[in-house]
Amino acid sequence: MRYRRDKKSGNALSVLGFGCMRFPRALGVIDMKKTSAMVREAVDRGVNYFDTAWIYPGSEEALGTALAEHKLREKVYIASKLPVIVCKKPEDFDRYLSQSLARLKTDRIDYYLMHMLTDINSFEKIRGWGIVDWVRQKKESGAVRQAGFSFHGTRDDFLAILAAYDWDFCQIQYNYSNENYQAGRAGLKAAAEKGIPVIIMEPLLGGKLIGGLPKAAREAFQKADPDRSPADWGLNWLWDQAEVTVVLSGMSGMEQLLENINLAEKALENSLSPADLAVFDEVKMIFNSVHKVNCTACAYCMPCPQQVNIPGCFAAYNTSFAFSLVAGLQQYVTSTGAASSASHMAGRCVKCRKCEKHCPQNIKISAVLDDVKRRLEPFWVRAPLFLFRSIVGRTTRPKPEKTLR
Ligand code: SF4
Ligand code: SF4
Asked: Which of 350, 358, 361 for a ligand 1 pocket mutation test, highest count of atoms within 8 Å of Cβ?
């Protein structure tokens, strides 16, 4: 494993961080056996930065359990996050931190973030509630070691938040297709100039820069170097930049973990040639021309009160442009359970817009679901599905029990 120095604390952090939002699941529940084996393997191979959050369902408990089981707590740095968006009063800071510590089975969080600051007002709100004094007290008590923030908003707001406090680190969304999106390259450079480590999230855009790459984009990478995978290209675009400290990958399987570790063991700054960088320009152009919705499948918008599978709808919608309409329809039918009576299709949306305030990508979810519905729920798809549901419903519906009068 290769390490980069957190100049503020002096810690040596592994260039690959384990993003714990996408631990393997079975039937919606974290698969502890697989998770525990992955955590163990990651630490054995030198990964020492684990990123979780109060708001990721089951993630803090799973990480705490795996680290305790293998007695690995002292070998790693844990990052977790204060759920700013659900804080209603200053007392909530203590409440959420205590819950995180208990779930993680630890007495300290090494890197504690204000989760998902979106603009300077989101920071000013908690500053008004005394977050600065609170952080100082937690640092003095040892419960928090480094204080930072994760960010989704405009570059100007990122720069304003960066300047508003003496942060120990920050976390931004950054990858080759989002070079100038949100904080972007300008934000990365500004943070590095302040001497604080920058942690990168969504380095492969929730896997879209691997599985969601159109054929022409894959071919462009392959033509440039047949031995390098899309993950190799995407991660090395980040590690090439000296300002990047840790690249988080939300790994959900052992194979993925091993591939990323193998890449991280060779990660170097300034390793890409001008010819390599030109390939990214070509791939980026192809990718951006077919990916209509910038959804990273983070699921912050879920659950929807109407049971719409929002990330599933957007993934299928993107597939219908990136690959083919048929491929998109197939994905849509399976991921939304369109053939069942309890479907999670876009057409169920009632535009309450409750989901939209949680979306870090600022997607106008209800409006885009209209587009999804228009493309993936045309009459010639709805009619056979309706027929299928009525037949299956008739044959499988339980007969009503006779009631005693
Ligand atoms: S706007 Fe639509 S998708 Fe969003 S929460 Fe409301 S019903 Fe669900
Ligand atoms: S719509 Fe937004 S909040 Fe929902 S999964 Fe996609 S990126 Fe995440």
From this structure: 350
Residue 169 phi, psi (nearest 5): -170, 170
Measured from the CB, is residue 364 less than 6 Å from ligand 1?
Answer: no
The range of the structural domain enclosing residue 276 comes to 3-290
Q: Tell the residue number behind the tokens 């960088």, with chain if given.
A: 277
Give the distance from CA 167 to its chain's centroid: 22
Same domain, 96 and 179: yes
Top-confidence residue, 157 or 391: 157
Q: Is 352 in the pocket of ligand 1 (CB under 6 A)?
A: yes
Confirm or reject: Cβ of 317 under 6 Å from ligand 2: no
Asked whether 116 lines ligand 2 (CB < 6 A), one says: no
What is the distance, to the nearest Å, from the Cα of residue 296 to the centroid of all Cα atoms in its chain? 6
Say if ligand 2 is within 6 A of residue 365 CB: yes
For residue 403, is pLDDT > 90? no
Domain stops at, among 225, 257, 290? 290
Same domain, 235 and 342: no
DSSP string, 181-234: STTHHHHHHHHHHTT--EEEE-TTGGGTTTTT--HHHHHHHHHH-TT--HHHHH
Atom of ligand 2 nearest to the CA of 359: 3
Q: How confident is the model at residue 75 (pLDDT cuts 50, 70, 90)?
A: very high
In this structure, the answer to whether residues 132 and 278 fall within a common structural domain is: yes
Q: Are residues 325 and 245 in the same domain?
A: no
Tens of pLDDT, residue by residue over 275-295, are 999 999 999 999 888 888 988
- What's the 298 CA to ligand 2 centre distance in angstroms? 5
Does the beta carbon of 349 lie inside 6 Å of ligand 1?
yes
Say yes or no: CB of residue 285 within 6 Å of ligand 1.
Answer: no
Q: How many domains, in total, are found in the chain?
A: 2
Query: From atom 8 of ligand 2, which residue's Cα is the shortest distance away?
Result: 298
Ligand 1 atom 6 nearest Cα: 352
Q: Which helix (H) or strand (E) holds 49?
A: strand 49-51
In a domain, 296, yes or no: no
Q: How far is CA 402 from the centre of its chain?
A: 50
Confirm whether 193 is domain-assigned.
yes
Please check the confidence at residue 381 and state whether its pLDDT lies above 80.
no
Ligand with smallest separation from the Cα of 173: 2
Q: pTM here? A: 0.84
Residue 295 lies in a domain: no
Q: Which helix (H) or strand (E) holds 156?
A: helix 155-164
Ligand 1 pocket residue status of 368, Cβ below 6 Å? no
